[in-house]
Amino acid sequence: MESIKKFPREVWRNNRPKMTFTLHPDIVKVVRKTAKEEGLSFSVVADEAFFAGFKAMGRI
């Protein structure tokens, strides 16, 4: 698989409310792999993925 190019970070990162939820194991694997490849934390990759997904759905 080709290395994923660095994605632009669009999510504001400062003191924010925390949220806990359960993700499908396949999604967790993808987020962890992406975080490792990009040198970012799990939470940054998850934030960016949620943001991109909601933006693509027209929710943001």
From TrEMBL:
<protein>
    <submittedName>
        <fullName>Uncharacterized protein</fullName>
    </submittedName>
</protein>
